[in-house]
Design a protein that fits this description.
single chain; about 15% strand; 8 helices; alpha+beta; Thiol Ester Dehydrase, Chain A; Capsule polysaccharide biosynthesis protein; 6-stranded antiparallel β-sheet; THEM6_lcsJ_thioesterase; HotDog_dom_sf
């Protein structure tokens, strides 16, 4: 008699082992789904999702203005199973990964025009930097925790520019319960739905805050530091400077030119999508011209074509007043640089332990 699965000895035992196998596969798939946010390389995918807003094809049709300089950008996220600590809450250490993503979304959205200029310019001015690659470096970050985030709970990250000096730009990120607070309007994306605008589900706006993070960043072109004020000007976020104030430095804005090999490779996807965007813009404007009402809405950032707070209300003095107010808080983060002096390198130490591998015990 031929040997088949039906005639195989121990058929019942084999069948019993096949069922748990399918269950384990299902559990593995479920585990991947609920922890997708924390899988290897997914952080990089989330970062690339933020990078795309530098592209012209992904930018808002509403031009940036000084009125938007201190407005927050809201980024949504959620807690995952792998982020839990022993208290069954989102671990404090995982907040910083979310801050990276929220901060990148703000930079690529608010500074998209300035980033494009800095990436492609070969000028010798502050924003030129020859053939070097443009980047944003993180100098310091701190976080204050107020409440916990439960497993799989949804939350929002409200990130905005707080202040800047001649080298550093400071950004604050507030972790907020989802839909606990609603902005009055979305100035950069006026077509986005904003139900119950200007309302909140808590007595005070501060009650909706879960945690607050402060970051210090610097714009770089190779080893050259680009002052934040220059990037703000290139991005259309500063009002005209008063005639009695000296310019930070004469800036050279050159036409986009080719750079080194590394940056040309980096620019391939951006250049491809930018060309598609130019073709699409030309075709859309020729075949489907926007009504005057929509053009007015795009300019003013409000459905009725009249912005609640006009850009011309944000004078240089008002921007400077807000910058100085935010600097009082930002300077506290700068004090962390002094901690390097507290490193007791050559003093006695308690000992040395090995992390993760418990069987190694003490390190001898």
């Amino acid at each position: 008699m031929p040997l088949t699965l039906d005639t195989l000895p121990g058929k019942e035992v084999l069948s019993d082992t096949l069922v748990p196998s399918s269950i384990w596969k299902l559990l593995c798939i479920l585990l991947i789904i609920v922890n997708f946010k924390n899988l290897p390389l997914i952080w990089h995918v989330r970062l690339l999702n933020a990078f795309r807003f530098v592209l012209r094809s992904e930018r808002s049709r509403t031009p940036t203005s000084p009125a938007q300089l201190f407005q927050p950008l809201i980024t949504e996220s959620h807690g995952s199973l792998m982020e839990l600590d022993y208290n069954i809450h989102k671990s404090n250490s995982t907040y910083f990964q979310d801050v990276d993503i929220a901060r990148t979304h703000l930079i690529c959205t608010l500074f998209s025009a300035g980033i494009e200029q800095a990436r492609r310019s070969k000028g010798q001015g502050i924003i030129g930097g020859g053939n070097k690659t443009f980047g944003v470096a993180l100098g310091a970050v701190g976080c204050s925790f107020r409440k916990e985030i439960n497993p799989f709970e949804k939350y929002e990250m409200w990130t905005r520019v707080l202040s800047w000096d001649r080298k550093w730009i400071y950004m604050v990120t507030h972790f907020v319960r989802k839909d606990a607070v609603k902005p009055k309007r979305f100035s950069m994306y006026p077509k986005q739905k904003n139900a119950n605008a200007g309302t909140r589900l808590v007595d005070k706006a501060e009650d909706a805050i879960i945690a607050s993070a402060l970051s210090k960043l610097v714009f770089k072109k190779g080893r050259l530091t680009i002052p934040p004020e220059v990037m703000l000007q290139a991005s259309g976020l500063l009002p005209p400077r008063p005639a009695d104030l000296a310019l930070l430095q004469t800036e050279v804005y050159n036409a986009p030119t080719k750079s080194n090999v590394a940056q040309r490779i980096f620019d391939i996807p951006f250049g491809f999508f930018e060309k598609l965007d130019l073709v699409w813009e030309a075709a859309r404007n020729a075949l489907l011209p926007e009504p005057e009402e929509q053009r007015s809405q795009a300019r003013d950032g409000s459905p009725d074509g009249t912005a609640a707070e006009k850009s011309d209300q944000w004078t240089w003095d008002k921007v400077e007043e807000e910058r100085l107010r935010g600097m009082e808080m930002a300077q506290k983060l700068g004090g962390l640089e002094g901690l390097a002096g507290e490193f007791t390198a050559e003093a006695d130490a308690l000992g040395k332990h090995s992390d993760l591998w418990w069987f190694l015990g003490l390190t001898y």
